[in-house]
Input
Amino acid sequence: MTSLVEIRQLSKFFPVTSGLMHRKTGDVKAVNEVSFEIFRGESLGVVGESGCGKSTLARLILSLIPPTSGTITFDGQDINRIGKNQLRHLRRKMQMVFQDPHSSLDPRNSIYRSLEEVFKIQKVPLSQEKINARIVELLDMVGLKPEHCRSYPHQLSGGQKQRAVIARALALTPEFIILDEPTAALDVSVQAQIILLLQQLGDQFNMTYLFISHDLALVDYFCQRIIVMYLGKIVEITPANLSQKQPRHPYTKVLMESVYVADPLKKTQTPIIKGEVPSLFNIPEGCSFENRCSFAKDICRKKSPELMEIVPGEFMACHFPLTYPEEDDA
Amino acid sequence: MTLLKVENLNVSFRTRDGVVEPLSNISFDIDAGEILGLVGETGSGKSVTAQAIMGLLPFLDGRISTGRILFNDQDLLAISEKEYQQLRGNQISLISQNPMTSLDPVYKVGDQIVEGLKLHMTITKENARKRAVDVMTSLGIPNADKVFNQYPHQLSGGLKQRIVIAMGLCSDPRLLIADEPTTALDVTVQAQIIELFKRTTQERNIGLIMITHDLGIISHLCDKVVVMYAGNVVETGRVESVFTEPKHPYTKALLKCIPKLGMADRSLHAIPGNVPSVRTYPDGCRYHPRCPDAKAYCMENIPEIIPVKKTLVKCHQFTPQWRTAS
Output
């Protein structure tokens, strides 16, 4: 497996200012020293609660905002060191689908114009007929009809709008698409349609996906590997299929237990985790999960755990990863 | 004892484009101490049902409601607005989806709880405050005395939702309606709030109507479930019966299209098509355009809601006419 995107020690701090002179009084550490790679053709999931830095991470990878430190290498090129024109060229290969399809489409543009715009902005040397043919082809790929060209966003349902957004993301045959909560605004029956569509397109074009969501079950279904984030840091990188293996990081365990299964026979008492995600202004010293963790000991309050590879392909940032009796026997 | 009984409730509005009927033939009931889940997708009529019970549907636009909503044997559709005001917020409380918009940003949260209390009963300022702090403490709000004097922006999302629940519970209602109360919250906080609802309904022996699109929450929290689709109740019964042996094709499909942990790869099912809007409800069974088992018979005839084993189902499949129909 070769990697398409490599992220090394990536951080993004937003300065906090106060007072008349806008003196800098601190930092919001939205993404804090994050390192991982995305392999070609895989679907990598990022889960975490609000404020864990998922969306900032997505914007950093597409170079929509500059990082505070660290590097992002896309296809061998450091995206923050190349020129503007090169970056624009590179952007053809990376696309993004946002959460709310309604605000991703210009309400005054027909679907045709929204799609055509992509080719104009990127100055693709195609004749108008070829562009038109390509637009019809794109609509067909995502399950829309050619006559939807003439529709305006308000005439389409949420699912149809998200299909149009996906068609736009596919227009320039990208290699890599970031999906930032692509189904959060949709109904469950439509969510399943979009997920199946994305899987089918992924197979067809050998697409690499970065799938961002707060829904652990959805990420587990869609992805091959999962990154769990908490307060700007990666706490665990694990292969998907979480139910087949026991969670090792206490936070992953909590997330898994917070998922309600639609099966009344599996009615288990949810062990409730205390407290809420602390604000990014006052991240606890030491391990950032320490104040909510039921396994926390003295060292957790003092020293922040490093992300370490404990088994090949599995990374973990915890002083006391969970172990299970069966493993000791084996 | 039956706390609330909704019988054949129909709600329609006269609009410029003709009459639309967001609710037709809704029937269900709920006992004290029971939790009823109302589940459905956008436009299925969940929130309109809640508003109809609360008497909050706009009188403008030519609202027409028929049927009966019996609360403690009193028909809510027959009482005057003044009588309704005595019930609303007092006997029946509504907790809405977004705690940010339910709280006024310029008033202290404690004063907002007290405001509701003073509106509904004669109570001194000190007693009202004491009562509010007590309810807040019982809902697991730490340092309730201090939180009482804080403004909404100083509180986290989970705390704000607890305040909104406290507002709903303060007047000691018999029935609580929660409209998607955890959608705006993180999963770990959602779990806390769901447990809180479970505990509160048992402790206070009140009825709770939980409106949500999350079948997982229904399965975990509720005793009974009402599955709604396009303004109809399509299936209703005890949670165990409906979830282990769903009868209606829509309930079956809905259960299959949620991803679960441990689901085999590529085993997710989607329901083709979209939820119809209130202006374009199809004739006959409203689910027939998306139903894999639909026959021509389903397009022409509106199904009755009939008992099938332990649940009530609105589907032709369980009638002898359907089996012989083409």
